[in-house]
TrEMBL record:
Coiled coil: none annotated. It holds the Pfam family LysR_substrate. GO terms for molecular function: DNA-binding transcription factor activity; sequence-specific DNA binding. One of its GO terms (biological process) is DNA-templated transcription. This is LysR substrate binding domain-containing protein. Belongs to the LysR transcriptional regulatory family. Residues 3-137 form the LysR substrate-binding domain.
Length: 162
């Protein structure tokens, strides 16, 4: 299962402090993601910690809205605000310390992507090859691995549901 993460630059946290709960995000600059399909701003999804935790959403507060993952990550790296992103997309920056993860106990796992195929009977060979590839690589991605040299994974390679 992919993990979601709230991250920001160390310089941002020096200036604005570290949020202790998702409610604290109302006092922070959050870089929002706008869905290209609907135009809606993605609401950040969280779970309360603990065995009886409940799911809830927070509307990101801030002045910067983008529909591009790389721009969103660059904004966070430059200290413009916090972002809510796939952990795997910012893993390198977390490892090198250029981004810091916060609110980890609250972050909701990402259930995954969905691929709708109207008919398996008439599936084009390219679609079959793509679905076979996804099934083969799913467990590797879920374990946090890399797809390989021929298939780079970068921040702009995913789309959010909505």
């Amino acid at each position: 299962m992919l993990e979601m993460a709230v991250v920001g630059a160390p310089e941002y946290f020096k200036r604005h402090g570290v949020p202790a709960t998702p409610a604290d995000l109302a006092e922070h600059d959050c870089v929002a993601y706008r869905h290209t399909s609907s135009g809606a701003v993605y609401r950040w999804e969280f779970n309360s910690p603990g065995p009886n935790g409940h799911a809830f959403e927070v509307e990101p507060q801030g002045t910067l809205i983008t529909n591009d993952d790389e721009s969103m990550t660059r904004a966070a790296l430059q200290g413009a605000g916090l972002i809510h992103h796939f952990e795997i997309a910012v893993r390198r920056q977390l490892s090198d310390g250029s981004l810091v993860r916060v609110l980890q106990p609250w972050c909701k796992p990402f259930a995954g992507f969905y691929l709708y195929i109207p008919s398996r009977d008439r599936m084009p060979p390219k679609v079959r090859a793509f679905t076979d590839f996804l099934v083969e690589k799913r467990s590797l991605l879920e374990a946090g691995g890399k797809l390989g040299k021929d298939v780079p994974v970068k921040a702009g390679s995913r789309r959010r549901q909505g």
